[in-house]
Each structure stands twice: as C-alpha cells, then as structure tokens.
Amino acid sequence: PEAAEGRSGPGHEDFRPRIVPYYRDPNKPYKKVLRTRYIQTELGFHERLFVAVLTSKATLNTLAVAVNKTVAHHFPRLLYFSGLRSAKVPHGMVLVAHGDERPIWLMYETMNYIHQHFGSDYDWFYIMQDDTYAQAEQVKALVTHLSINQDVYLGRAEEFIGGDEQARYCHGGFGYLLSRSLLLKLHPHLDSCRNEILSVRPDEWLGRCIIDFLGIACVSQLQGQHYHTYELAKNTEPEKEEEEEFQAALAVHPVSDMTLMYRLHKQFSRIQLDRVYQEIQDLQMQIRNLTALTPAGEAGVTWPVGINAPFLPKSRFEVISWDYFTEQHLFSCPDGSPKCELSGASKADVSEIIESALEQLNRLYQPLLRFSKRQLLNGYRRFDPTRGMEYTLDLLLEAATQKGHSHVLAKRVSLVRPLSKVEIIPMPYVTEATRVQLVLPLTVQDLDFVANFLDMFAMNTLDTHDNALLTLLFIYHPYDAQRVGQVDVFAGVKAMVGELEKRYAEVKIPWISVKTEVPSQVKLMDIVSKKHPVDTLFFLASVWTEINMEFLNRCRMNTISNWQVFFPVHFQEFNPTLVYHGEQTASSNTDFLRDGHFDRHSFAEACFYNSDYMTARTKLAADILDRDEVLESMEVFDVFLHYSGLHLFRAVEPGLVQKYTLRSCNPRLSEELYHRCVLSNLEGLASRSHLAMALFEQEQANST
C-alpha cells in the first residue's frame, strides 16, 4: 500500500547499485582467484523452493506415496522425513530417517537437517504433513510474490491453548512457509528450544520456539499475499465442493486416505484447467480487439488466435511439404518407401486428431446437430517449426438433427497442435577432462591420407597436450597378410608412428593388425573393445578426419555413459576441380564453412563409451546367435539404434571438416552400406549450381 501511494514504508528501502572498486595490496603476494564453474554460484543465486514432507511408519506406504504421485513432480525438490529406522523406501521417493519417532524430536532433527544440507541453497522452505494436499503450482506462485529479504513464517495461524492472544503458531496440517533468513536465525536456538520448551504437538513447539527467540508470530497474510486453506469435513465429496474457499485453497487438511488424495488432485486439476482455458479465451479476445487497431486490421489476426503465424518460405527450397495419410496408411515413410502401415505414435496421433475434430464440431453445432464419423477421406499433416504440427482433414460425417433426421456430408477441418512450453531435459553431469581414445581403421586405399591425419593429430592434440590417445587398426587383405614378411603394405605408416614416438617421448601409439576381406565396422570394433577398459571413451575416426580440440571437447560433452552416444555429421568439402577450376583451393577454416555440405550418409565417426558398446553388443549376439554374416550389413550406429536404450545424438559438427576425396566403396559390404557410400560420393562432388555450370561448359566445348 505504501508503494502504491508513492511512500516508502518499513522494509521498502530504495536499493541502489554500488560499484566496489578493485584494490590489491601491493605488499601481499598475488594469489590467483578461483572462479566457480557456474555464474549462478558466484553471484549467490539460490534455488527457489524446498519442500519437506513429514511422514510416519503407518502412512509411509499409503499417504506419502499418494503425495509423491500427485504433487511431488511439480516441486523442484521434495524430501520425506520420518522417525523410522532402516525403513524400506517406496520407489521414486527420497526418505531421510532420523531413527526416533517422537514428534518433537522428528521436528527438531528435520529442521537441523534442512539447515545443514539445504540452508545455503534455497530461498524458501515449505513444511507439510503427508495428510495434507497442497496445490503445488499455487505454492510456487506464492513464493514468487514474496520478498526474500524478510523473515517469513506464513501459514494457517492458530492460537496457543491458554497462551498469549497475540501469539500465533502455524498449524502443521495445512503446511507453512519459512524464509531462508528466518531459518538461519532460528538454527542457533534449536537446541535451547528442545531443552526448554515442552509441547505435545511439533507445530506448536516450532511456533513457540520462533516466537520466544525471534519474536515472530505466524501470519496468514503477508505482502498482499493470502495463504488460503480449507478444512475437510468427514465424508466430503471433493467433486461436489463448489465453495470459493475450497477453490482458492493452497492446502487442504485432513486427508484420511489415498483415494481421497487422488480425488482432491483430480478436482483441483480440473479447477486449474478451467481457469487456464478461461484465461486463454480472455487473452484471445484482447488480441482480437488490439489487432483491429493495427495497420493490418482484422486481417492481421492469425489462426488460431495467439499462436504464431505459419512459416512463410522465401524460396521454393524452404517450402514445408505436407504428408498424406489415411486411417490405415502413411504415404511418407521414414525409410523412404512410398507407403507404409500407420502404427505406433503416428496411429495414436491420427486417432486423437480425428476425435478432437469431432469433439470441436459437436461443441459448435450442438444441440442443433450431432456429428458422427463415417470415414476419413483425406488427411494431411506437416510440422511447422514456428508453431507446431498442422493438420487438414477431409471427413465424411453423418449429421443427425434433434428430430432424428440424418444426412451424410463431407467437411474439411484444420487443426493445429501447438508447440507447448519448452522444457530443459535433465542430463547427467559430464566434464571436459575425460580421456578420448581415438580409433583409426586403415586399409591399403587409405595410405595416401595417413600422413595428413597424423600431422593434424600431432599439431592439435600432442602439441596442445590434450588428453587424447590414438590406436591404429591395420586391415590387411588376406593376400597382403601372406606377404607381410617380404612386403608390409603398412610399413610406411609404422615408420611415421615411430617418428612421432621419438618426437614425443611420453606418447605411445599402439596398432592392431587384422586380416579380413570384408572390413565390417562392428567386427573391427569388437577387437578394439576387448583391448580397452570398460570406461574408455572411444572416438571412431576416419582417415580423412582433421582432429581438433574443439571437436574433442564436444565429443566429451555429448557422450554420456549409460545415457547418450554421439554420431557427428562431418562437413565434406566439394571437389575443387569442379568448384574452383584450379583458381583457388578450398579453405579448411571451420569458421567459414562453404563450398561443401554436411554428409548425412556417413556414419563413420562416432563417440561412445566401451561399456555402452559392450552392453548393446551382448544383446546383438543373443539376437543373431552364430550368424556372423549379419554383422557385415551393420555399422556401430545400427548396433546402438536397435540394441540399446540410449539416446542417439545425431547432429551436424562444424568442427569436423574433411577434404574432398573419392572414397572406395567395398562391394562386398551389404547393399545398403554400399548404396550409402555411393550416394556420399555423388553428393560430395559439387553443388547443383556447380554441376550445372560444369555441364554447360562441357556442352559449350563439345559444340565448338
């Protein structure tokens, strides 16, 4: 109120930024300042809300589980506290057992534990019982409107029995909110409270402790925010509760059983949805009213109102194509075939869209007309990255009137499944200190490119002391393997390795010799995997790869043990003869990727942990039994795709640039791998414009 009137009241000081000049005592030796890993830590930011749920032996597997299934996932951090000793914890719950079931002792130990482990990490602490239903989103919204600079003890204020009329404590059954500043001030007095204050109820004990030592009483209203609660009567039907007090409640108590907890959650979720839908309608109305005042007028209103306008392509290459489907088949298949059966997520998507279309039509035309579906005549869908998935349906409908008359008609409807709130997927923590083990398979056809690979490896890893090692895999043809005693085709490479080991005394580059006619990537990886520890991070490279520190760091960060593997898409430069006509050479500067393309047909490079490969390989072995010829038609990518539950991260990698070269495609590999290799060679020749110019010049030369 003071701020609204332009006056500054207590606790509303006008804070101004103050620049603290840097000063270093010249008489003291300089000490390097250690920076924190995250700026949030250095600036002293805290997480918003920590929630503690008090439970017991009798309710741990009932009410506590119900709390965990209804509201726990809405809170950023929630722990359960109990006096049980060596209790069996239900799945998905984090329980702190203090070993003493006395209520006052449990509260004392809980406050101590919260202060010790979370006191410096969170701004707000919400304490509740497992027989309390709390509206998680409302509680989170409440703390965003409260100042963290004040000592807050907020909840349902109750009078002490026979105590001072002015003093109030927060009833534990309805939950209460403590600020970080209050918790820090309270902690030194907890031992005194335990020894001096006698009480039967833990919430009364805590309230008396806060009042006696800090002089702060519980309040139900603070800084214009109200802590609304609702006390449930016996045999209450949540679905029939229409009181405003019930609908506005942040916490409901007492909840007698699990079923009642779930019914409350369903009812409050319905109330929250109704509020959201009403808010959406109000916003859409405001958008329509405001758009009418813009230069575009009412024509500037996009459909649906409030959703981004469709993407407008600037050229024919940017046009987003529509995928045609029926209720049984999809005519744009992932494997490139013209027609495939509609199944899985796509089938569920189509069914849901048709049901939604019928529901919307009946909502618009009832009670005059009632629509029922006869058949889906045509269906089209496309993904627009600016707004979401768009659908156009041609439906054959039967329309029935109130008098019982029916008529069959066709109707076209358009629907949009908009992109919802973007969420950050939690990922395990990784560092850039992991050692990378490079594996380089070499055949006779690769000998001309080995020198450049070793030079780049030495310059970008050995000279910079990057934590990376190299293992060479010499693949001998059976004929060359028989003559290795007289003529070793890899003698030159071994000499280069020897020179590197002399130049870098601490570096050892081992090699493994393999004899095979068909260099299957999986079979070669099997040999390498057995010779390295299970925690090894492999980077499976190709001889045309130019290794650099930037990519190796991305390899470390994008590969997570037991979680994710990384298959980068390298940048392939075009044939300089076609592109430059001998006038200039292609630039290897990765900051300016030009005159080339990202080769999506190549899966030669991969980053993965040995343990993940061994797990997937074991499942593959159980599937194919002794049919080793199947391995010739597979790559490491296929092993992870079909035989692991890991995330496969496939992304363009500007740090991997390869010079143009015509790859030799082994016809003894599977048809798919051979076809993929040929496509990679063809698309790597030049761009369409360069190829067209080459054809034009050739025709000009032939005509003259």
From TrEMBL:
EC number, as in UniProt: 2.4.1.-
Cross-referenced InterPro entries: Chond_GalNAc, CS_glycosyltransferase
Superkingdom is Eukaryota
Q: Does the keyword Transmembrane helix apply?
A: yes
Q: Looking at the UniProt record for this protein, which Gene Ontology cellular component terms does it annotate, in alphabetical order?
A: Golgi cisterna membrane
Give its localization: Golgi apparatus, Golgi stack membrane
How does this protein sit in the membrane? Single-pass type II membrane protein
The record's keywords, sorted A to Z, are:
Glycoprotein, Golgi apparatus, Membrane, Signal-anchor, Transferase, Transmembrane, Transmembrane helix
State a single Gene Ontology molecular function: glucuronosyl-N-acetylgalactosaminyl-proteoglycan 4-beta-N-acetylgalactosaminyltransferase activity
Pfam families, A to Z:
CHGN (PF05679)
Asked if the Swiss-Prot or TrEMBL record annotates the protein with the keyword Repressor, the reply is no
Q: Which family does it belong to?
A: Belongs to the chondroitin N-acetylgalactosaminyltransferase family.
PANTHER family xrefs: CHONDROITIN SULFATE GLUCURONYLTRANSFERASE, CHONDROITIN SYNTHASE
Q: What name does UniProt use for this protein?
A: Hexosyltransferase
Give the organism, scientific name.
Regulus satrapa
